């Protein structure tokens, strides 16, 4: 497993535990996956595996659904947030590269 992944992002939680943690039914969790709101990994046996970040995301999704927000609107928000995070990461990497070049630091990653 990638050493750079935060413990919150490691996919180690089964759907049964996810059900207990979120209070959602397995059907609801699968529905949110079908609607491309959450992306579990699959074990070699085909079982879904979730992360603690997924728990938080599912709780946010459930709250928004309860408030009357449609799943396609939630998906649009998620896509927009992912793009924002990707742009932030690119800017950070570019800035680090500029700093490394300015000060003659070699990046060993």
The largest beta-sheet arranges its strands as: 1-2
Main sheet, how many strands, which sense, barrel?
Answer: 2 strands, antiparallel
Number of domains: 1
Q: What is the element string, with H for helices and E for strands?
A: HHEEHH
Tell me the span between the first and last alpha carbons: 17 Å
- The CATH architecture can be given as Orthogonal Bundle
If helices are DSSP runs of H or I spanning 4 or more residues, what is the number of helices?
4
Structural class: mainly alpha
**Overall spatial form:** extended
What is the name of the CATH class?
Mainly Alpha
Give helix % range: 55-70%
CATH topology: Multidrug-efflux Transporter Regulator, Chain: A, Domain 2
Radius of gyration: 18 Å
What is the arithmetic mean of pLDDT?
92
- Percent strand: under 5%
Low-confidence stretches: none
Q: How many DSSP-defined strands?
A: 2
């Amino acid at each position: 497993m990638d050493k750079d992944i935060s413990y919150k992002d490691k996919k180690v939680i089964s759907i049964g535990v996810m059900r207990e943690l979120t209070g959602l039914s397995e059907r609801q969790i699968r529905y949110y996956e079908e609607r491309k709101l959450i992306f579990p990994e699959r074990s070699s046996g085909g079982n879904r595996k979730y992360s603690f970040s997924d728990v938080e995301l599912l709780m946010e999704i459930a709250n928004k659904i309860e408030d009357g927000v449609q799943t396609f609107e939630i998906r649009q928000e998620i896509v927009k947030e992912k793009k924002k995070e990707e742009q932030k990461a690119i800017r950070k990497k570019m800035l680090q590269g500029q700093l490394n070049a300015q000060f003659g630091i070699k990046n060993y990653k």
